[in-house]
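Example complex used in Figure S2.
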Amino acid sequence: MPESDVIIIGSGIAGLHAAYPLVEGGVRVTMLDVGLDESHTLEEGVPLSFEEHRRSDAGQDKIFLGDDLSGIGASTGDAGHAGAMTSGRRRYIVRGADTHAPVRNDSSVITQSLASGGLSEAWGAVCGFFDDEELRSVGIPPEEMKTHYAAIIKRIGVSGTNAKHDLQSPAEIDDNSTRILRTFLSRKPFFDNMGFRVEQPALALLTRDKDGRRATAYRDMDFWDNIGRSIYRGHYTLETLRTYPNFTYVPDIFVKTVRQESAAVIVVTKNTATHQDIRFRAKRLIMAAGAINTTRILLRSFDLFDTPVPLILKNNYLIPNLLLSRLGHRSDPHRHSLCQLIMSGTRHGGNPVNAYVQLYSYKSLLLYKLLRYVPLPVPEALSVLSLITPAMVLADVRFPMSAGTFGQSILRKDVSGDHLEITHTETPAHKTAQDKKIKPIKRALRALGLLPLTSVRNPFGATSHYAGGVPYSESTVEHVLSVDRDGRLHQADRIYVADAASWASLPAKPPALTIMANANRIGTRLKSAILLQ
Amino acid sequence: MKVLITGAGGFIGTMVTKHLLEKGYDVSGIVRRGTSISFDHPHMRWHVGDIRDTAFLEICVRDIDTVVHLAAAKADEPESFAVNVTGTKNLIAACHAAKVKGFVNISTISTKLSKKGVYGNTKHEADELVQASGIPAVILKPSIVYGDIHAGIFGTLIGYTRLPVVPVIGSGTFTSRPIHVADVAVAIEHTLVRQLPRACAIYDLGGPDIVSFNNLVRIIAQEIHRKKVVLLHIPIPVAYLLARVFEVLTKKKPITVSNVIATGQDVKVDAEVFFREYDFHPRALRQGLRDMLRDRDSEKKESYALLRYVMPKAPIGKYHTDLFERAVGAYGLDAHHISPFILSTRSRIGAFDAVTRLLRPSGAFQRKLLIAAAILECSPLSSDWLLPQERSLQSLAMDIFRYGFKVIGKLMLGVLLLCIPGLYKHNA
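Predicted assembly (961 residues):
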């Protein structure tokens, strides 16, 4: 039975950045992971731009549709948005999750990953810095976070502008977004009054070379390949960690249960290749399998079947807009594909809307994906789409979800073992309230020169942001499972939770950066505790 | 490499054009006025005009590296000389002016006959012009070229062999080496890959089988119609007379004087030199005939019909139909078959598309169209069509109008299709 100081379950961003300070500090860390990895296919090939691929690459179907043609999405149940980032060659990121980690859910969408690097292998790289109020609602002490945000920025490379942090210079934005930003600046007092601000997002996209990774070449292939490694992906950090002698990465391991004994933690696992049971032992354990699977493993380990625990899911609204002034313009193909601008509610002013709106252009995406929204015969639909998509701006609207809302997870026994039952019952009043907030947002979009065409409400979970299960709590009685402010489980003091399972809310901003920074905080505090002994 | 193909709309020309595009060449093609251009490609440029027009030729050869000269008047026509000889002369002059680096002339084995008809004579003169031009050149002299079940000598033969008794001019003992048109395209591409010789090189081009005309008729009857035939030999003087009569009476002649002259003489097709020098392995005759049948059948297939419907002008190939079939399997749509009635014309597919899009947008028919759309979009074929372009608001509005009319037309026809009992139920 291999033994180490700390075992970390999962190689997603939480596990990696909790591991980092520990490994740097000389602590012996073992990371257990299923670790599917086909990321090399995304780094191979000639670094052509999206247009160059489209014009001259006869084998482009392999990139855009994948070898398994999953990119077409012609199944009846294919969810448009949630699947968009994990189709084609990124399909492996979600492969096998359904069978290894079964979920029964109602109307919600649950995306899980067994890939090395986890869902960061498919993320959109938008970095949201939580303000103090947001951090407190999550259960993270705000006063500790500045140094940890700074550590992550230094580690992964973030570009943009931020008053409190030193970032790489912001990435160039495309023609449509330049236009929108100019409109905003020229009418700033008007937007101040409305309570909205438009700015460039901070992105985990390099604009300067860093650690062997290249500054973005603006090839507009960010959704399709990792050539140049400009966008941060978790497995780069894993590669770095693996160069340390005190770090051990054990792939093909699926964790079943964890158990605390007098002076150690035992992790019972199954090898996914040989199906053998293997036990691991360490002095401490960090859970970082993602909010849903950390919850699953802990519920199973504490024999808490049929016991509901909180789960926070986020939904989003997609508002496709036409930027009328740009109709008929080809636009410069020299661009990045990520979020171009964000429009956020300032939460002050006359009509406060706490929303985070990400603006994307629909350029390096494919038209056939939109066919379902255009009820014309296919050739005409494609023609019309080719005319209007260059002037299309997609607004992805998100609202904060607080604790104790509508979601819960329950671990249920079944014939093949167990599964996680996820229920999400939103009250009609909540839906109405959310719908109402779309109105001022559309008004703001119109003021930016955009024509909102419609708004599509995506189901809860569609953003792939999940939290709760083992939430932060001062007291030990409020929840069956909960953690203290250091991420330490009240119910077993050698077990820590580094991922968003410990979060008591989900702010509107994307959580990834804060998950990394908080994991770094938990890892750092644990390192101090271990080194002190 | 930039290649200009004359006669690009013809039987061999179309095949050569598609093959070169597939191999990544930039291709310009000259077609006669009135020829319908059957496909578009981002690396393809079409010139419509006359090979006898010197000013037009000068525009066509600009920036061209190599010219593949296929244009010719095949039947004995009054303009044979002007097209085959004067046309070639003009083209060579234009090539000189534009400093074209290579010239591939597609001649005919008929130029080797001791007694030639108009076709053989004019092509022979053209060959001499090419040889004397001083431009590095290759002259290919193909034997019978086949590959399309509906066209060329084989098209005619396939028609005749349907009869219980097949008329054959003369003894039918003269031999030929039929070569599949796709192999001719490969041969031409082979000559482009290699540096053309300084002086002119001349090769006979043929398939691996040497067959007498009698055997050719028998093999075709066997492979295509699966039957045996009786041959009726027509003495040459009688055939000659018939050809003369046809020449006077009809425009579209079943036999020409050149045909009759050719049948009386045996030419040795020395194809092995080219096989050896260019490591060229054309398919056997029987294989070629089977490929021909398969090509005909594949045009009736669902994959081809739907892809063709989404992008009528795209040169849809096996690569795309294979992808389509793989996707249909991957998405579990194997069991669904679209009735031949709908597939038979593009307008019926369009009409059915218009109505199912509204009535059953996630039905099997629409999912298959989605697959076709995805496959075509993820191909260079669609880049000119679908990638963003700079355009005026006026043209934008015009286009939208045009699509509007098309949609209305499809919808109206679609409503009619709905009236056919069972059609919607079984296909949507």
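Residues 78-82 of chain A have pLDDT under 50 and may be disordered. Chain A is about 30% helix and 20% strand.
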